[in-house]
């Protein structure tokens, strides 16, 4: 596979033109005649029993067409992995983003006015905002069966014996904060009744197969009566799963009730208030280490704040438990990861999915170990790093190329790490007003869903009679470049220019359920499916060409828009791609094929936490260089190097785009992002208060792509979307340590943490309190 | 934004003043629209000032100083070369506000009349400033609130321009139903102890028409620095503006104003009394910094602002000395 035509090229993104010219249609750009507009009535207590809901005043408002409460939901009002998310709150409110009722009216203003007139009687209940407190015996119970959502374990070797063997112990506690996805486009959906007693939903749901099932179940309709069309997506980062489904299903209920098109739209404030966040974690790490810098035992406990509903907590924390010990050898491991219900915003999928939290702890611990042993952060990692054939904490033997040392060395070389690290830890640097620092981190990541779920994806390739191509895929593009990557794969297989390929909007009726576009599985699964589909079409074409030109199908090549006879010694063009297409159709051979990508088997034992968790892994390393203002605590990012083994870069430019965006997001997590809640009330509900890095805050970045092709991926490609984000934060905090000699154990490393060594905000998770939002 | 309003384009200042009595004046709209959206302002009428050319001038007359029209945009102030050279605190303050998009529409007058960013004031809380009974920040999340001058209400004033103009001892020309008046900017803002529901002394119908900045004495230097948590589109955690005269290595006159520490742009008395006659050497700089905010009474979470302000004053003085 030495020469590719399109794979690896920096092809412009296939969706770029529409997005920069404004032609791309996002969910809110769709409108229909006679459409109504929805509005919501929020819960007024983070935890309360609902005694009664009086909608009579709202119904009287002229222009109001429908007011719905949970009683009006004809089908299932619950959904989710553990189905306890309420479409409309029924017996209880569990967080302040719960919606008690929805209104449809002739315009948004009327709908909102009516929603404000809905009167709800509550009986206040004690609320709990701290997951550890929620797990205590006498804590207020948020869901029947108790507040523990899940408890995952990994047991390997004998930790007690390991600690006995150890020369010294490092024990630290870390805390990470909840953060908002901050997608550019807030949730929106337009739902309209169609002429066949069904409904069509246009919206920006990331995982539209899930939305499809939820909406059909809520409306009490079979799946084939609900069609989901996914609009162009303005970002998601894992955030438009249940959050976008909720907006769409509420619109659907109103459309069903009124028989008219209904638009439901979240403002930024609605979006931040309602949507789920990245889990806050409290992490207890204890390592037994030897003088030579190796690790004899790790005992780890982590507690995740699941918020009001289970959402993806069981899966998010499962990835944490699998990866909690990092890509390092350790014979004795005991890990426990819990998720608990609280009355905070619920938490779920977000780019990284349970890895950014544990990576922050692991990589901080690794630097502490380096300090104790007296070697550099690079040396300590090289001493402990997984190599080919290593066995992970879950007992999985790594059979792919384990490139951890390669990425570490490349990251160190690209950043002049060893020299700078020594220079910056000197007294001369640390006593300056503006000390500099450099920090290293690395991580490994299981690709795709792993043993947490069924893993298959589909695509359909259709070569039209004129030789143009349409592709339908179950893996969607939310801005990450999936379409471009899949188009390049199809173009490579068929030997045609990228411009000849057109994508159809994702549609629930068009491609078999391909699961969610999550877990960095877009390229390896979606791309894999597209490759198989294109190969299946090419097979049909080869058979026809063999007959028409009397050549062996094995000798046929497809490239440069032509079909070639490559019979070993010479190549000669037989015909153009269009001519062969025409020949196929003339012989009654339509060029339409689907491809399904399945994955190698994974397995898992719940009790011991042993098994082959993922079918393959990726490896990456980050280096951050910072300058700290010792007078104010402000940290400036100077340089960033991000190295990732992606298997094969299908498009180097989109890989770099993922890396740059990942660094900006991951460094923001490390330095300033924080979703602040006070007794369940969201305080940071727009970007004036919720800080994400701006262009002014982003450092100079260098992306280094490493390619060790993997047998599981199309052309050897693996993943980069989440790896890019998951290890940036500890690189930054390790750099702050290098500059100041002080370790940040609580994210984000904002000015107060760096300057004062503590957070000023009181622990929001104070004793359980009954509380209420002041009425206007 | 749940109500209807009328939108009027007056053709003269007199007409604007007459109409503004029962409505809100509208310039860049960057703050007002947010207030309307958040259900805090409910104007029946918006009086657009953008059609009045007399509010858009930047003039400088020998001896009389600088006159800046209230409708000059922040971006125009930031990019004005004369200001950059002779009144750098003004262009620095303007350039550090908000984001490029907001600076292109946000105006000087609007910046001075912004309403506070307190998340209780902006949120669904019936707080003292909105006519309620209590300040929720006092015992709530108060990391960004004031450390001095709060009395019942603990907002900070969000304007960057006001801090720079206070150090430069600017005056405001105000036009209203009662005619014109000229007011030092130090008298423009209202402390909560006097009235917790307003930030300025503007009466209904009154409009700031221009800002007069006195010509600075020879040897004067001005500077504005702003500490914020991200490098763009952020309000000041603490800001410091200094307009000082320096002779023979010592301060001979001028003022230092602070932002982000009080409900109004803040002239700390002890700090300013320490300036004149103090040498700009290490001892002198430490002495001045230590004299700042000695009467501060921080809330539970914002004591860091005192340290921050003092360190920033040191930095400002070091830059002026160097």
From TrEMBL, chain A:
Alphabetical list of Pfam families matching this protein: Ald_Xan_dh_C (PF01315), MoCoBD_1 (PF02738), MoCoBD_2 (PF20256)
InterPro entries to which the protein is assigned, alphabetical: Ald_Oxase/Xan_DH_a/b, Ald_Oxase/Xan_DH_a/b_sf, Ald_Oxase/xanthine_DH-like, AldOxase/xan_DH_MoCoBD1, AldOxase/xan_DH_MoCoBD2, AldOxase/xan_DH_Mopterin-bd_sf
Domain Aldehyde oxidase/xanthine dehydrogenase a/b hammerhead: 21-126
MF (Gene Ontology): iron ion binding; oxidoreductase activity
Tree of life domain: Bacteria
Designated name of the protein: Xanthine dehydrogenase
TrEMBL record, chain B:
Keywords assigned: FAD, Flavoprotein
Domain FAD-binding PCMH-type, first and last residues per copy: 1-218
InterPro entries: CO_DH_flav_C, CO_DH_flav_C_dom_sf, Diverse_Substr_Oxidored, FAD-bd_PCMH, FAD-bd_PCMH-like_sf, FAD-bd_PCMH_sub1, FAD-bd_PCMH_sub2, Mopterin_DH_FAD-bd
Gene Ontology MF, one: FAD binding
Keyword Flavoprotein: yes
SMART domains hit by this protein: CO_deh_flav_C
PANTHER family in UniProt: XANTHINE DEHYDROGENASE FAD-BINDING SUBUNIT XDHB-RELATED, XANTHINE DEHYDROGENASE SUBUNIT C-RELATED
Protein name per its UniProtKB record: Xanthine dehydrogenase family protein subunit M
């Amino acid at each position: 596979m030495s020469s590719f035509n399109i794979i690896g090229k920096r092809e412009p993104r296939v969706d770029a033109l529409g997005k920069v010219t404004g032609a791309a249609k996002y969910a809110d750009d769709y409108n229909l005649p006679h459409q109504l507009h929805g509005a919501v009535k929020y819960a007024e207590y983070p935890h309360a029993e609902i005694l009664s809901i009086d909608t009579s005043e709202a119904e009287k408002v002229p222009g109001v067409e429908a007011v719905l409460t949970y009683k009006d939901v004809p089908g299932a009002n619950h959904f989710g992995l553990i189905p306890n998310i309420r479409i409309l709150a029924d017996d209880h409110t569990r967080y302040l983003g719960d919606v008690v009722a929805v209104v449809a009216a002739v315009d948004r203003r009327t709908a909102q006015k009516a929603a404000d007139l809905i009167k709800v009687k509550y009986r206040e209940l004690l609320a709990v905002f701290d997951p550890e407190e929620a797990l205590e015996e006498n804590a207020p119970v948020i869901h029947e069966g108790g507040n523990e959502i899940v408890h995952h374990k990994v047991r390997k070797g004998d930790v007690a014996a390991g600690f006995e063997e150890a020369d010294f112990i490092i024990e630290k506690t870390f805390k990470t904060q909840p953060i908002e996805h901050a997608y550019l486009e807030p949730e929106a959906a337009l739902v309209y009744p169609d002429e066949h007693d069904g409904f069509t939903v246009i919206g920006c749901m990331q995982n539209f197969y899930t939305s499809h099932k939820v909406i059909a179940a809520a409306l009490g309709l079979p799946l084939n009566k609900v069609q989901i069309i996914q609009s162009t997506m303005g970002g998601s980062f894992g955030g438009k799963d249940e959050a976008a489904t909720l907006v769409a299903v509420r619109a659907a209920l109103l459309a069903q009730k009124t028989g008219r098109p209904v638009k439901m739209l979240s403002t930024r404030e609605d979006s931040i208030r309602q949507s789920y966040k990245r889990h806050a974690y409290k992490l207890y790490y204890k390592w037994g280490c030897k003088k030579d810098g190796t690790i004899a035992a790790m005992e780890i406990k982590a507690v995740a704040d699941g918020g009001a509903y289970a959402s993806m907590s069981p899966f998010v924390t499962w990835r944490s438990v699998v990866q909690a010990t990092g890509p390092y050898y350790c014979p004795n491991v005991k890990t426990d990861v819990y998720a608990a219900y609280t009355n905070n915003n619920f938490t779920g999928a977000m780019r990284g999915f349970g890895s950014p939290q544990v990576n922050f702890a692991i990589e901080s611990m690794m630097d502490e170990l380096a300090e104790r042993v007296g070697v550099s952060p690079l040396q300590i990692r090289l001493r402990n790093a997984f190599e080919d054939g290593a066995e992970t904490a879950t007992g999985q033997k790594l059979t792919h190329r384990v490139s951890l040392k390669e990425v570490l060395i490349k990251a160190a070389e690209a950043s002049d790490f060893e020299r700078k690290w020594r220079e910056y830890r000197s007294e001369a640097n640390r006593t300056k007003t503006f000390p500099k620092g450099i920090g290293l981190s690395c991580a490994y990541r299981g690709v795709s869903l792993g043993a947490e779920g069924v893993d298959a994806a589909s695509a359909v390739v259709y070569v039209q009679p004129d030789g143009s191509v349409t592709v339908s895929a179950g893996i969607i593009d939310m801005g990450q470049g999936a379409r471009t990557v899949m188009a390049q794969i199809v173009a490579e297989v068929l030997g045609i220019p990228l411009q000849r390929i057109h994508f159809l909007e994702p549609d629930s009726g068009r491609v078999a359920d391909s699961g969610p576009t999550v877990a960095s599985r877009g390229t390896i699964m979606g791309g894999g499916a597209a490759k198989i589909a294109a190969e299946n079409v090419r097979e049909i074409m080869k058979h026809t060409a063999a007959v028409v030109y009397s050549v062996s199908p094995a000798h046929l090549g497809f490239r440069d828009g032509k079909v070639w006879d490559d019979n070993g010694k010479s190549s000669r063009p037989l015909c153009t791609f269009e001519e062969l297409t025409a020949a196929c159709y003339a012989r009654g051979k339509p060029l339409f094929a689907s491809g399904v990508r399945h994955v190698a088997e994974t397995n898992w034992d719940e009790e011991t936490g042993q098994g082959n968790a993922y079918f393959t892994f990726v490896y990456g390393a980050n280096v951050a260089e910072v300058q700290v203002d010792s007078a104010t605590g402000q940290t400036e990012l100077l340089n960033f190097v991000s190295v990732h083994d992606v298997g094969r870069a299908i498009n180097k430019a989109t890989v770099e785009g993922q890396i740059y965006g990942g660094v900006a997001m991951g460094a923001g997590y490390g330095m300033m992002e924080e979703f602040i809640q006070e007794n369940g009330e969201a305080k940071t509900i727009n970007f004036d208060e919720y800080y994400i890095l701006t262009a002014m805050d982003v450092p100079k970045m260098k992306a280094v792509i490493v390619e060790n092709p993997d047998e599981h991926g199309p052309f050897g490609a693996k993943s980069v979307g989440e790896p890019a984000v998951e290890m940036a934060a500890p690189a930054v905090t390790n750099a702050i340590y290098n500059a100041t000699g002080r370790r940040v154990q609580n994210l984000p490393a904002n000015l107060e943490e760096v300057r004062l060594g503590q957070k000023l905000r009181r622990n929001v998770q104070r004793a359980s309190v009954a509380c209420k939002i002041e009425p206007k | 934004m749940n109500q209807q309003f009328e939108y009027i384009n007056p053709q003269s200042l007199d007409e604007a003043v007459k109409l503004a009595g029962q409505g809100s004046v509208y310039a860049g709209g960057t703050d007002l629209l947010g207030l309307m959206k958040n259900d805090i302002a409910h104007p029946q009428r918006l009086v657009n000032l953008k059609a009045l050319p007399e509010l858009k001038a930047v003039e400088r007359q020998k001896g009389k100083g600088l006159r800046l029209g209230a409708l000059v945009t922040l971006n125009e102030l930031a990019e004005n070369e004369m200001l950059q050279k002779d009144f750098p605190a003004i262009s620095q303050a303007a350039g550090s506000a908000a984001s490029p998009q907001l600076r292109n529409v946000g105006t000087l007058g609007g910046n001075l009349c912004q309403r506070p960013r307190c998340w209780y004031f902006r949120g669904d809380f019936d707080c003292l400033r909105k006519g309620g009974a209590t300040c929720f920040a006092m015992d709530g999340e108060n990391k960004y609130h004031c450390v001095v001058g709060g009395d019942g209400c603990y907002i900070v004033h969000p304007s960057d321009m006001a801090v720079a103009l206070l150090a430069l001892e600017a005056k405001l020309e105000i036009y209203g139903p009662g005619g014109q008046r000229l007011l030092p900017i130090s008298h423009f803002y209202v402390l909560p102890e006097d009235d917790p529901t307003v930030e300025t002394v503007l009466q209904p119908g009154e409009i700031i028409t221009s800002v007069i900045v006195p010509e600075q004495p020879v040897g004067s230097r001005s500077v504005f620095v702003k500490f914020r948590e991200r490098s763009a589109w952020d309000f000041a955690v603490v800001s410091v503006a200094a307009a000082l005269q320096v002779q023979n290595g010592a301060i001979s006159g001028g003022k230092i104003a602070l932002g982000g520490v009080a409900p109004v742009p803040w002239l700390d008395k002890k700090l300013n009394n320490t300036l004149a006659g103090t040498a700009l050497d290490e001892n002198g700089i430490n002495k001045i910094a230590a004299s700042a905010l000695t009467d501060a009474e921080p809330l539970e979470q914002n004591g860091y602002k005192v340290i921050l302000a003092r360190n920033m004053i040191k930095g400002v003085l070091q830059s002026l000395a160097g």
